[in-house]
Every structure is written in C-alpha cells, then in structure tokens.
Amino acid sequence: MEEESESSSGDISQITEHILFEKYEIGRLLGCGAFAKVYHARNIQTGESVAIKAISKQKIVKNGFMPNIKREISIMRQLHHPYIVKLLEVLATKTKIYFVMEFVKGGDLFSEISKCRFSEDLSRRYFQRLISAVGYCHSHGVFHRDLKPENLLVDEKGDLKVSDFGLSAVTSQVQKDGLLYTSCGTPAYVAPEILARKGYNGAKIDIWSCGVILFVLNSGYLPFNCRSFSGLYRKIYRGEFRVPKWTSPGLRQLISRLLDTNPITRITVDEIIQDPWFSKGYNKEIKFHEPENTFLAKGKGHYGNNDSSKFLNAFDIISFSRGIDLSGLFKDFDNLPAAECDRFITAETPVNIIKKVSEVAAKENLTMTRKDWNITLEGPNGKLLVGIEMHQLTESLAVVEIRSYEGVWKKRFQPHLSTLVYHPEAVETRPLSGILSEGLSVSG
To answer: Which residues are annotated as part of the binding site for ATP?
Structure first.
C-alpha cells in the first residue's frame, strides 16, 4: 500500500507496507479515483474481509473537498440499510483518511450490465432494491446526487448495495426556497433541472438518475447519448429518448414517468412503490437494524442521569480528537493566520460556556462579540486575540474549538475554565491517542 513513510515521521499510527494500524492486512487494489484508492483488506483479528478507501488529505484540502469528506462521514455513519454499504470505521494519519467499509464481493453493477442487458425480472429485482435504499436515504434527509451503475455494488447473494456518498447533500444544505444549487453528478445521469441551473429538489434528481439506471438495466445502453456534451445535454433537457421495442407496456410507462423532464410531475418514491410493474414481488416490510450509538471499543463512559442515557459515538471522538488531527473535517485552518488551535469536549451548555467566557473576558479587559455559538475576543486596540466556536455533539455534549493568538487562551483563560472539560471515565484511564492508534470501530 502506498504511504509516505508515515511510521517513521512520529505519527501515532503504526503502518507497515501491508499492515494498517496493526489491524488490517492490505490486499489488492480494487479501484482508484482522483483523490482516493480503494483496497481489499482483511481484519487480522477476525479474518473479515473489508474494503478500505484511502483518501489523500493533501489533495482534498488543496481542491476544497474537505467539507465533502466530513459530510460523507456524517451521512454514512447514520445510514443503516441492507442495500447501502456499511461504513465500519474511520481511521486517519497525518496524510490519509481511511474509510473502512463493508466489502461487497460481487463488484459493481456497471461491470455486470456491460456484459449484456438484464431480463425484465432481474431489472425489477435490482431496481426494487435501489428504490428501497434511495427512499430510506430521502426519509433520513439524505440525497445521493450521483447514482449510477458504477456506484451500485452487487454482493454474492445478488443483492444491490448503494455506495459512494461523496457528492451527497443533506436537508440542512437546502436553501429557503426548498432547493439545492450545487451542480454535480455524472453527465449521462444528470437531471435536466441541474442543467438549467435554477435550483433543484434533491429527491427528484435522484429519481431521475434511478430512471436512467432502470433504462440501462433493461436496454444495455444509455437513454441519452451523444459524442458532444452539448448534444448530450440538449437531449437530456428535452427528454429525447427511445425505449427498446422489447420493453413491456408497464415498464415503458414507469420509465416515462421516471424520466419526466418536469420535476413537479415526475414520479415520487411513494408512487413508484405503488406502480403495478414495480410492486410485483416487492417486499414492502424490509427489516433492518438501527444500531444504538456505541462508545469507544473499551469502557462504558455513559453520561446523563435518566434511563435513556446515550453514549458518545466513536466517530464523534475521532472527529474531534486533536491526537488524530482531523481538524480539517471541521474547517480548513490552513487558510487562517498562524495561531494556537485547541478543542475540548464539554458537558456544559453553550449558554453556560458563553457566560463563563464572558466573565473571564470582563476580568481580562477584553471585548467579547457573539454571533450564534461563535465568539471573538478582542484586545483594547481591537486586535483579534481569541476565536471560539461551539458545535453540538449530542444532546448532552458539545465541542468547543479555540483559535488563540499570542497565547492568550492558555495564559489568561484556560486556568479559569478547566472545569468545563468533559472527562469520560474510559478516556481518563488511558490516553485518547493510544486508544485511537488501535482504531475505533462502530458496530454496524
């Protein structure tokens, strides 16, 4: 596996040529992209096969994609469905971020369909699983935005698994008019409203892509195809396609509703499930497990005084730990002036934190300015000395990020606010960096 001699650079992880974090034996390369490579690997302890996506931090920071990585982690950790690839664990070094994922043995759907078109029954089987996964995502406020056969994997049982949420969006990104505006997707699968650049409904563009996929499964070729992008986009915008003559009337009608150029009248997931062609043999009551949040692989560390006390998720620890240096998943500090950066987890409410910071600021003769949960502290001459951001981690915990100039935070604030820091029992007994170096896993 390609690494930049990280084990010799003082990194907390221990990486050899074929062993990652003393836990995963790295195998063959499965695929690669502009910013990442995907490898087959084996869990040394359990013998389980996994897929590991190794992402170059330097490349994603340089190209401004760090927010996408943060979003992808956040999205995948909350999706638990039989037809969506599971994210098992996130690991990191100084130069790489590693997604440890469920290994899907059969490869991607593109490889299968490139051999020959599918029968109508097999097309329906795959499409039913795709819609089940997409409907689940939409119900959880997630829009994939890059659905295509290359991102649909097939396991040894013949079940479909949706993967690659790198371009996904969530409801918090939706503007006041209820639309998204970022242009993204793969040209042949992109919806006409994205081409119009007037805003789009995330669920409706996923449905369009599903329509293109169903067309490909049934025909073996794309509904919109042209040598030039301008010609391709013209056909998509106008909805110019021909359904193969072997297509049954029921499937023909469903495809026409999926590839409706008007997003308002385009079919919805609920309407697809009621469609006669689609519903044949469809199991509406798919059972899947929504796991409880887990804490570190070791220890209990629960908090809260009621019966529904929660646990700090391992992904939350890894995202907010300085020891593993994933600060880029929050914000790109590289573009800001040189300063000391610090962060801690607290059980105090943001209101109490602001109150305590305000008290110390008054004693130190500093001017405090607040915007939402962000605070800036300025000296008598108006010079910025401290910037503080608060992020709600769970109902009971928050993360406080500090950017301090001239050592102001450590010298003048830290002694007065040390009681704010949350110390879970499991972390107190062992250094957090030591636990992280072994890798943190979340039961899937």
So the answer is: 53
Domain membership of residue 144 (yes or no) is yes
What confidence score (pLDDT) does residue 425 get? 42
Contacts of 415 (CB under 8 A, 6+ apart): none
Binding-site positions: 53
The pTM of the full predicted model, rounded to 2 decimals, is 0.64
CA-CA distance, 1 to 93, in Å (whole number)? 14
pLDDT given for residue 119 in this prediction: 93
- Same-domain status, 39 and 116: no
With a cut of 80, say whether residue 206 has pLDDT above it. Answer: yes
pLDDT averaged over every residue in the chain: 77
CATH of residue 431 = 3.30.310.80
Same domain, 122 and 60: no
In this structure, is residue 285 part of a structural domain? no
204 shares a domain with 133 = yes
pLDDT tens per residue, range 389-415: 877 665 567 778 787 777 777 777 777
Among 185-199, 256-270, 376-390, 424-438, the minimum mean pLDDT is found in 424-438
Catalytic residue numbers read 146
- Confidence check: pLDDT of 189 > 80: yes
Quote the CA–CA distance of 389 and 367 in Å, as a whole number.
16
Q: At what angle do helices 202-219 and 249-258 cross, to 10 degrees?
A: 150
Q: Which amino acid is at 95?
A: T
Task: Choose between 61 and 193: higher pLDDT.
Answer: 193
Number of domains in the chain: 3
CATH number for the domain harbouring residue 259: 1.10.510.10
Domain boundary among 83, 102, 121: 102
The reply to whether 146 and 177 lie within a common domain is: yes
> Percentage of residues in the chain with pLDDT exceeding 70?
77
Q: How far apart are the first and last CA of the chain?
A: 26
Residue 19 to residue 16: CA distance in whole angstroms? 5
Lowest mean pLDDT among 63-77, 277-291, 323-337: 323-337
From the list 107, 89, 104, the residue with the least C-alpha distance to 20 is 89
3-state helix, strand, coil in the chain (%, to 5): 35, 20, 45
- pLDDT tops 60 at residue 430: no
CA distance 214 to 118: 10
